Amino acid sequence: MRITVTVDGTSYTDDVEPRTLLVHYLRERLGKVGTVVGCDTSNCGACTVHLDGHSVKSCSVLAVQAHGSEVTTIEGLARDGQLHPVQQAFHDNHALQCGFCTPGMIMQSIDLLSDNPDPDEHAVREGLEGNLCRCTGYQNIVKAVRDAAHHMRPGAGPEAERVTGADTGSRTASSVGGGGE
Amino acid sequence: MTATIEPEVGKGRLRKEDERLITGRTRWTDNLTLPGLVHLAVLRSTVAHAKIVSIDTSAAKEMPGVLAVFTGDDLDPEGKIGMPCAWPITPDMKSPRRPVLAQGTVNFAGEGVAVVVARSAGEAEDALAEIDVEYEDLPVVLGLENALAEDAPLVHEDLGTNRNALWVFDSGEAGSGGNVEQAIADAEVVVKRRFRQQRLVPAFMEPRACVVDPTAAQLTMWSATQIPHILKTMSALTLGLPEHKIRVIAPDVGGGFGGKIAVLPEEIMCLLIAQKLGKPVKWTESRSETMVAAHHGRDQIQDLTIAAKRDGTVTGLKVELLADMGAYLGLVGPGVPILGAFMFNAIYKIPAYHFACTNVFTNTTLTDAYRGAGRPEATFAIERMMDELAAELGMDPMELREKNWIKHDEFPYTTVSTLTYDSGNYEAATQKAMELFGYEALRQEQRERRERNDPVQLGIGISTFTEMCGLAPSRVLGSLDYGAGGWEHAAIRMLPTGKVEVITGASAHGQGHETAWSQIVADQLGVPFEDVEVLHGDTQSSHKGLDTYGSRSLAVGGIAVVKATEKVIEKARKVAAHMMECSEDDLEFSGGKFTVKGTDRSTGIGDIALAVFAAHDLPEGVEPTLDSEAVYDPENFSFPHGTHLCATEVDTETGRVRIRSYVCVDDVGKVVNPIIVEGQMHGGLAQGIAQALYEEAVYDESGTLTSGTFADYLLPSAADLPSFTTDRTETPSTTNPLGVKGVGEAGTIASTPAVVNAVVDAVRQFGVNDIEMPLSPMRVWQAIRTGEKAAGGPGAEAGGGLGSIDPAHGGAQ
Fold first, then answer.
1. What is the mean pLDDT of residues A11-22?
2. B31 in contact with A at a CB cutoff of 8 Å?
3. Three-state DSSP class for B282?
4. 8 A C-beta contact, residue A18 and residue A65
5. What is the average per-residue pLDDT within B610-633?
6. Sorted alphabetically, which SUPFAM superfamilies does this protein's record hold (chain B) (predicted)?
7. With respect to CATH, is domain A2-76 assigned 3.40.50.450?
């Protein structure tokens, strides 16, 4: 099947097998290897990307489902050499060790902050429940997300990741994939 | 610039490693592609023990994109290749051959049976379904005591026994203490307990992967490994390849926790197939494969007997272990329980000690190192025993510990198991922890909740631990029959522009060596932190090393770096004296400069590096280089310690455990980077707490791993863990020039008993004196009601209903 997908600002048109997962399309066809695969049961969240601004586990989305959509991966966050505030906060708070879960963790954190711009510790922990980390014990990740929240008020983030509209609180979870929760 | 610049060591530097990792510019092994690369997929046994009657690969070979299909007999027709075990713990240890792919029999569910080579990973995977294997079932051996029963079927018929080895230490025989049987006979109080160390999955986040390129000048292997140097040597030995023709690279590696200390059949397979086909090959496992095929950790039955006087003085300790090796021996698997042999006596002055461990084969995935490797098991058992003894004596458990521990003015102290602890201050760490925790107030609340029969009971758990790490003095490893030494290598390259390249044999996979080594070198050579580049993990640039495990990188590898910088300075001193026309004795080196004493004449090390590069005017007999290397063999282990306190709330109506407060004060000696140290503590705590409350690798009666996915194996998420209060005391190690101790495993070693002690403390009034890990709500609830510590079914209940996926890889059926 032929699909057209915009990934990190570039439009791609490709023939893909219908069974191709979005994460395999990103990694194997587009070379977007910043997004990684950590499990095969949609539990770990390492492959989390944004599909039209909502986080999805890209192992749970078919490439064909992304047809006509915009995908943002960890590689598309920094603009003009400027890190996204969540990336910066992960660095500033030592919120990563081996770094394998980090792309998914950052993408999910951004989604969490677009739902709730000032989450308390509990909200962050609940919001990241679908992303596993084996190195950090999560404490510094929680700290980083809350730190980023303070830096992102208002308008500190890049345009593409800024929350738009007034109805963000009532946004429904993405209809595809296991994202969001 | 003056000589008073702030030292880098001790500074909370943010990590150099992060920039690539937070932007996705990573080089995980699976990210690599090479011209003509082909992909491997491994068919894994779905049964735990069977004869292989036949393997029909003909249909698979016809599948689109398939280049070849190999069985064990295809790759190794003579059946000569065996995966290495480097730790024969006794001369008569039984050692079965572990083939690259099963030959004749399969011995655990998940063992490789055949491998497909195809153009794409997907095509290789598709072809697995077309391989037809006929098995003839053999009796499945599961459970340590079952395996040792008189009429037990055998995992390996040819060995004649399921007993791998018996390893014994006795303080009476060693002359380091008394006779433990006498101590028990004479004791006023004797407490016996049996503890179960459940089987765990290391669960590094990056699944293992391997790429081999036979088209390069050297046969080049990239692997998601903790041990590129050991892997190179072992690959050469295993396959009879010339070692100088092999290059191993560990690129970015996504965690290990001991789980990537291994020489994999899949790595050997990649080497064989790449050479056979003359093409680069890649193998990347799925998570379902990791769960069944990568080695597991722990899995012991521990029988302990402690003898004491009524006043709480411990007089003897007897430890009898059964340790499950799984179906084969891993690289260091048989030695893992032995690393615990020296730690059961922990921080206590125990006059008589006996340790005996029987290693056992079963039809399960092999076990090997997992964060702490032997020491968490030991620490768990002794810290649980101290609480049990305190309960028996009616003493406060901290008071009992204090009565028996080594006092700060008694160091250095040689223990009953013959280790010499160089330094420590258990009083200081404990005092600080008790204050941060609010021990007395929590005890008061506990009394109140008990009195009013509150449905939510409060428990307090203590773990005052030490561990031996910084593996290891080579002579000690030799005395334990380990197959290698414990030194580490480092080299410094002084570049003409004054920048510095540091080469280390330690192989980081998340620890932050690049940052910490840069801090050390910045101080030693007086160069800016930013001017230091750390090279590691490639045997071509970092040609010598023993890699990263056992909390050894800083305490051994970091000291090698210090020693190498000292040699650079000595070389530079000669040149500086020549340049400034003075005697070497008149020079002092500080802040990156040689200054002529009593003058303001000085030369920077960067200027010297440039002068040496030009080499126009060097003193007679001086080589034109400042580059230096050092190999450091530690004189002793390092002995970090700490006091961990955990308060749990146990809902007696549901069995649910909530960690209300976790406080730890650790003493890891001098600290190079407090941010990294704190991160290591957090992650270590999470893994230790996960053993106490969540994780267990569970086999059903047919030998199928039922917790074979992340839907079933309960790796904690952020929502499952509390925030920790971590603090430190600082008692420098006296056996290395930085005064550092290891930190990588401390949190994992210490935390498990603190949590279990807290839960047992919360429900002891119901007649409970133990609950088997993991302390699932079901088990806690049953224990409260029936006193049965392991009642209520397996700890890790299948949770997501996803356990049936991926049968081709041996996933649960």
1. 98
2. yes
3. strand
4. no
5. 97
6. CO dehydrogenase molybdoprotein N-domain-like, Molybdenum cofactor-binding domain
7. no
Could you tell me how many CB contacts below 8 A there are between chain A and chain B?
A: 178
pLDDT of residue B787: 76
**Which residue type, as a one-letter code, is found at position B674?**
P
| CATH code that applies to domain A85-163 | 1.10.150.120
Taking only residues 557 to 616 of chain B, the set having a beta carbon closer than 8 angstroms to any beta carbon of chain A reads none
pLDDT of A153 strictly over 80: no
Selected residues 100-139 of chain B with any CB under 8 Å from a CB in chain A = 122
Q: What are the pLDDT digits (tens) for B82-97?
A: 999 999 999 999 999 9
Which residue is listed with tokens 């098991």?
B377
pLDDT surpassing 70 at residue B384? yes
Q: Do B278 and B317 have their domain in common?
A: no
In a domain, B412, yes or no: no
Residue B134, pLDDT above cutoff 70? yes
> Is B10 contained in some domain?
no
Do the Cβ atoms of B781 and B714 come closer than 8 Å? Answer: no
B356: pLDDT strictly greater than 70: yes
pLDDT tens digits, one per residue of B668-697: 999 999 999 999 999 999 999 999 999 999
Residues B332 and B388 in one domain: yes
Residue B680 lies in a domain: yes
Residues B450 and B771: their CA atoms lie apart, in Å, by: 20
ipTM for the whole complex = 0.96
Say yes or no to pLDDT of B811 above 50: no
CB-based contact B228:B264 (threshold 8 Å): no
Q: Please give the tally of structural domains in chain B.
A: 4
Work out the mean pLDDT of chain B and round it to a whole number: 95
Q: Average pLDDT for residues B70-88, to the nearest whole number?
A: 98
Contact B511 A97 (CB under 8 A): yes
Nearest CA in chain A to B26: A34
Cα B268 to Cα A174: distance, rounded to the nearest angstrom:
43
B174 lies in a domain? yes
Decide if A138 and B718 are in contact by the 8 Å CB cutoff. Answer: yes
Which residue, among B690, B726, B696, B692, has the nearest Cα to B708 in the 3D structure?
B696
The share of chain B scoring above pLDDT 90, in percent, equals 96
CB-based contact B30 A36, cutoff 8 Å: yes
Query: Could you tell me the residue range of the domain that residue B110 belongs to?
Result: 32-138+205-255+260-293
| DSSP code for A172 | P
Residues B531 and B608 both lie in one domain: yes
Looking at the fold, whether B163 and B222 belong to one and the same domain comes out as no
For residue B581, what is the domain's CATH number? 3.30.365.10
Domain ranges of chain A: 2-76, 85-163
- Interchain CB distance below 8 Å, B715 and A134: yes
Asked whether A66 and A58 are in contact (CB, 8 A), the reply is: no
Kindly list the residues from chain B whose CB atom is less than 8 angstroms away from the CB atom of residue A60.
Answer: none
Residues B98, B237: one domain? Answer: yes
Containing B456, the helix (H) or strand (E) segment is strand B456-466
Domain final position from B379, B405, B431: B405
Q: Are residues B97 and B37 in the same domain?
A: yes
**Predicted local distance difference test score (pLDDT) of residue B4:** 55
Query: In angstroms, what CA-CA distances link B442 with B260, B395, B427, B649, B660?
Result: 41, 17, 20, 11, 11
Query: What three-state secondary structure class fits B51?
Result: strand
Give the bridge partners for B644, in sequence order: B463, B664
Mean pLDDT of A43-67: 98
Please indicate, yes or no, whether residues B740 and B647 belong to a single structural domain of this protein: yes
Contact between B115 and B41 under an 8 Å Cβ cutoff? The reply is: yes
Are the beta carbons of B255 and A96 separated by less than 8 Å?
Answer: no
Q: Which long-range contacts (CB under 8 A, 24 or more apart) does B433-440 make?
A: B433/B642, B433/B643, B433/B644, B433/B645, B433/B663, B433/B664, B433/B665, B433/B727, B434/B398, B434/B643, B434/B645, B436/B663, B436/B665, B436/B725, B436/B727, B437/B645, B437/B647, B437/B661, B437/B663, B437/B725, B439/B398, B439/B645
B279 and B308 in a single domain? The answer is: no
